[in-house]
Amino acid sequence: MSPTPPDALLFITPVCRHCPAVLQSLSEMLKQSQIGKLTVVNIAAHPEQAAEYEVRSAPWLRLGAFTLTGAQSASELKQWAEWASGEEGIAHYVEHLLTEGGYKQAVAFIAADTQRLKSLLTIIANPEANISIRLGVSALLEAYSHTSELQALLPKLGELTFHPDHRVRADACHLLGLTGSAAARTYIETCLDDANEEVREIAEEALQAIKPAKH
Questions:
Q1: What does pTM read for this prediction?
Q2: Strand pairing partners for 61?
């Protein structure tokens, strides 16, 4: 079964130099069924709609759940449309937001559907990911400390404690501690004897974080 193509909402202005190219690319994608629907709004004619979506510049594009601003090439738009059709694109979009300094937008994007947290683990599992991106993703996950949303990721985080790279194992231990769940103890305890000193230290801290309350 083919994924459903995303719908597109594009805001343009008469003086925007990148808008015509983006509009043309999206029109071609519509013909090729790479997007399901294309709605175009001229900000000059409908400033109230621009205000509703908090549009501050053009071109401004909502493609499925993703919001993209500025110039986008035809190939970039096709890639985003493909990503917008499945879970794989969520991590790419969050990485894009963090690269552009859009941490607040990333927070809002995750809050709109906390199921998206699961996709962030692909970045945690990638030791070669940019350090600032990894830190940003860790912060997004840490915001759900001691919640059912983070606890739902426990099995996957447990798998990451066996990752060949110590940075991934360390991050997994840290996040397991933040679940606050006793079920995380087994995974964390395996890291107490890890070959890497940093992993062992973080495992100790994580165990303290989920220590049962004394009665």
A1: 0.89
A2: 10, 68
Q: How would DSSP label each residue in 161-204?
A: TT-SSHHHHHHHHHHHHHH--GGGHHHHHHGGG-SSHHHHHHHH
Q: Check: CB of residue 37 under 8 Å from CB of residue 5.
A: no
Q: Mean pLDDT over all residues of the chain?
A: 94
Q: Does domain 8-83 have CATH number 3.40.50.11540?
A: no
Domain boundaries, the chain: 8-83, 110-209
Query: pLDDT per residue over 8-42, tens digit each?
Result: 999 999 999 999 999 999 999 999 999 999 999 99
pLDDT per position as a tens digit, 91-147: 999 999 999 999 999 999 999 999 999 999 999 999 999 999 999 999 999 999 999
Q: How far apart are CA 82 and CA 3, in angstroms?
A: 9
DSSP per-residue letters across 19-71? HHHHHHHHHHHHHTTSSS-EEEEETTT-HHHHHHTT--SSSEEEETTEEEES-
CATH of 110-209, one of 3.90.1150.10, 3.20.20.80, 1.10.3720.10, 1.25.10.10: 1.25.10.10
In which residue are the tokens 């993209």 written?
A: 68
pLDDT score for 87: 80
